[in-house]
Every structure is written in structure tokens, then in C-alpha cells.
Design brief:
This protein is mostly helical. It is built from 5 helices and no strands. Helix 1 crosses helix 2. The protein starts with a helix and ends with a helix.
Length: 77
């Protein structure tokens, strides 16, 4: 999860900081990527509208597993 993408969602870095109840300087200290614990907080507080990198990776893994299962079932027929 990149700071620029989330700041765009909220409208600005200031609004992002207010949403998380932290200082603007704290957000700038993150650099390009949002720390994992803040990603999780954003995912929970936005009701899943914003997804943490972990959640996106899990979804991708689940899709791959589903596709592999589907292939095995088709091949068995």
C-alpha cells in the first residue's frame, strides 16, 4: 500500500493523518510505503475499501488455488 495512493483516496496527506489520528510528520516518515500495522488499521477502518498488501496477497493466493483445483477437476473428467 503506497502513501500516494491512500492520500489520493483521502484527498491529502493531512486528511489521511487526521483519519488515523496521527501527525502529518508521522505520515511523511513512512516514506513511500505504509507500515503493515497502519495498512491493517486502514483496511479495518474503511470497511475493506482499502486493502492491506497482506490481504491482497491472500486473495491472489486463494484465486490461484481455486484455478488449480478447477484445472485438476477438468483434467480428471
Amino acid at each position: 500500500m503506497r502513501v500516494c495512493e491512500v492520500a489520493k483516496y483521502f484527498g491529502s496527506i493531512d486528511e489521511l493523518a487526521k483519519f488515523l489520528k496521527i501527525s502529518r510528520d508521522s505520515v511523511y516518515k513512512w516514506g513511500e510505503f505504509i507500515p503493515n500495522h497502519r495498512q491493517y488499521e486502514l483496511e479495518v477502518k474503511t470497511g475493506g475499501i482499502l486493502k492491506s498488501d497482506y490481504s491482497l496477497q491472500q486473495e491472489e493466493n486463494n484465486e490461484k488455488k481455486y484455478k488449480n483445483r478447477k484445472r485438476r477437476v477438468s483434467a480428471a473428467r
